[in-house]
User: What shape does this take?
Amino acid sequence: MDNFQNNGGQNNSRGVIESLAQLILENPPEALAQIHGSAQFPDIEGTVAFYPDNEGVLVLTAVTGLPVPEEECGNTVHGMHIHEGESCSGNENDPFADAGAHYNPGDCPHPQHAGDLPPLFASGGSAWNAVLLNRFGIDEVIGKTIIIHQKYDDFESQPSGDSGLKIACGVIAGL
Ligand SMILES: [Cu+2]
Ligand SMILES: [Zn+2]
Assistant: This one.
C-alpha cells in the first residue's frame, strides 16, 4: 500500500483516509503501550498502538480520564512524547522520572526529536488522535516509554517543550 501516491489517479484525499482505516481494520498493531496515570492522576487510562505502513508508522492514541479543568479556559491540551527511558517508575517529585528525556537518537532539538508526537486535545477528559510519522521504526521504540504531560507542548522550549509534569506513562511492548 502506498497511501500518499497510489490513489487510483484520483485527486481524492478520501482514498488516503480509507487506506489508513483499512490498515487499522485489517492488520494488528506491531506494538502497544498501555497508559496509566500517576498516583495523582489515577483515572487516566489509555492505549497507544503502532501500525507499520510504507510511508512510516501510524500511531493511534485513545486516552480517558484526563483532568477536566474547572475554570472555563483551563488547559485541555497535553504534550505527548516517546521518552528514551524504559520504565514508568520514578520518585516523589517526578513519578515517571525513569522515563528520562525525549527519544532523540539523531541529537536534534525539540520538536525534531524522533520521539516528539502531536499533543492530545481532550474533550471532557477523553482524547483520540492518529498520526503518520517516519521519524522512527517500530522496532526501535519497543521497550521505550510514552509520556503524557499536564501542560501543552510549546514546540519551542528546550529540551522538552515546557510541557510540565508527567501525568501518565506506558511502556511500548512489541506484539
Ligand atoms: Cu514528554
Ligand atoms: Zn522533544
